[in-house]
Design goal:
The protein has about 110 residues and is α+β, with helices and mostly antiparallel strands. Helix content is about 20%, strand content about 35%. The chain has 3 helices and 7 strands. The strands form 2 sheets. The protein has a 5-stranded mixed sheet with strand order 3-2-1-4-5. Strands 6-7 form a two-stranded antiparallel ribbon.
Amino acid sequence: MITIHVTPLSGGYYAACVDDRILTKQTLTPLLTSARVLLAEGFDPASPIEMKRKGSDIVALRSTIGSAAKLTVRETARAGPMFVRHAPPALKVVAQDQVNRDPRPELAPA
């Protein structure tokens, strides 16, 4: 069992760590974000994971790394917080001529 210890920050954010290793410095969804970090590091998706507040023995949430990594939380004005499928941010596609272009207009080729 991997135990994620979370520390509350301001504004509903949390820092999350395993033992003394920081997994995320600021997130609204510490268990889910930590699961994605661990999955990216090669941990077994079937491994159990749990979350506790630092200094507490009470388990706040429990899952497997793979299941938790697939989720995020969405909240709307009409519905309270709910688990939804996590979608990684889309990669921005940049044309090759944009990559080497100097952003300073005064240095643009004539």
